[in-house]
Structure formats: structure tokens, C-alpha cells
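# nightly structure sweep
# worker-07 picked up a monomer target from the shared queue
# config: single-sequence mode, recycle default, output format = C-alpha cells
# input follows
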Amino acid sequence: MDWSLMLALLAMGTFGGFAAGLLGIGGGMILVPFITMIFSARHFAPHLIVHMAIATSLSAILFTSMSSVRAHHLHGAVLWPVARKLAPGILIGSWIGPWIGKQMDTQLLSVVFGLFVAFSATQMLVNKKPAAHRDLPKTPGMLAMGGLIGVVSGLVGAGGGFISVPFMTWCNVRIHNAVATSAALGFPIALAGTISNIYFGWGEPGLPPYSLGFIYVPALALIALASVTMAPLGARLAHRTAVRRLQRIFACILYALSIYMFWKAAHA
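# output follows
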């Protein structure tokens, strides 16, 4: 691995970790497009690039989420009862998501990723006020919602914040608590998704050396190293940032990355 690639991966991990702490998105929405660019420049097998970018991003969240959630927990912002109710569905869904992704070609997977990111950005930018009486659903509803978050997160390689944060704010959870709780959900999403990507990618023809299933281990190591360092800084800033500004930051970043993934699909 040359120095330019190492520096690029460290820079991505720095930015992704900071965003994970700030926005509770696990970094995946940020990392996948950039990893896709790097893997394309390295001439990895075209039909595997997006699959590997998603798997590598998801595995990095294992490390980022632990660092991020610790910082949020120190602020007393994580709603642990909410996280516990969502976690069982998330574990199941995050295993299924990579299996669904394996059935898709790179072009379709890029479009799906771009659509989910654009939808998430719109949810945040519109900032529609929830009904005052709306609350989080009961346990069966939380199990189902956890399953949905897990499937989509495992499919697109993200920590789930692009669904869980809008969902929780829609149910009248304060955005700072929603971001912190979403960061806690990143670990079960990443754990199940990582194991699933190793299992379903094992022995896939065309994988480069040092791959573990669909995960490219050298990229994972460098991204994780940088992101773990930066996630607490993003988390601390999140608790000092106005709610509306936080939503706008979230939306603008996601719109830009969704555009790239649509472009990638068009040129696949």
C-alpha cells in the first residue's frame, strides 16, 4: 500500500469519525462514496467495488461507534432503554441486509444507496414538527423498526442514523438524544453486518489480496484508527451545536454524497 493511499484512508477515517460523533450516523453515509472512489482508482474488480466499500465502511463502524457512544454517554444523552428495545430487530436485520446487497449488481446498489441518502437528507432539511402527542411505539413496534433499520443499514453500510435519527425525532425525542442513541445502535448494526459480509463474501471471485469476505482489511485498519480518534471530538461538538444547524449540516453532507452515488451508477 503506497503513502498516498494510506493518507487518503486516514483522511477519510478522520472525517468519517468526526461526522459519526457529530451526527450519530456511524460514518457510513460519509465513508462509502469516498471508499468507492479510492477502490475505483485502485482498479478493483468493478462488480465488487461498491459491495466492498459498503462492507469496509460497516466494519469500521464497529470501532467508531464505541468511541462515539462513550463520549455521548458521558454527556448523559444516550437513551439506553430505547437502544435495548431496538437492538434485537437490528441484529436480525443487519445480518439480512448484506445478503440482499449481494444479490444486486453495482449499478443498482449505487442507486439504492443514493436514494436512501437523499431521503434521509430531505427528512432532516424539511424539519416537519411531529405531533405533540406522538411517542415511541411499544415493544413490537420497536422490534419491527429495529429490523427495518438493520436491513437498510446492512444493505448500504451505514450505522443507521439516517433512519433512526429522523424516526426518533418524529416521535418527539430531542435531536441530541436521538443522535446519541443512534451512535449506540451503530455497534449491533456493525457487528451483525460485519459477520454477514465476511460470510457472504467468503471465496467471492475477484477479491483483492488481504480481503476478509467483502471487507478490505488494510482500508479498515487505517479508517478505524483515524475515526476512533475523531469521533469523541464530533460528539462533544454535537452537544454545543444548535438543533437546526445540526440538521442542516446533516442534510447538506448527505445530499452531496447522494449525487456522487447517482453519478457512479450512471457510469458503472
